[in-house]
Amino acid sequence: MGVLRLLAAAAGSSALVSYFVYVLGFSTFSTVNYFSYFTQQSNIANVVVLTASGILMLRGVPEPRWFASLHALVTTYVIVSGLVYGVIVIESASHNYTIGVPWSSQVLHFYLSTFVLVDWIFAPGRTRVRWSLVLAALPFPVVWGLFTIWRGARVGWYPYFFLDPAQVRWPDEFVLYNGIAIGTIIGVTVALVGLSHLRPRHRPAVTGAPPRTPAIRAGAGLSPEARRGSSRRRRGPRDLAVATRQEPGVAEGSTVGSPDGVGEADTRSR
Question: Among 26, 44, 171, 208, which one is least packed by beta carbons within 10 Å?
Answer without folding.
Answer: 208
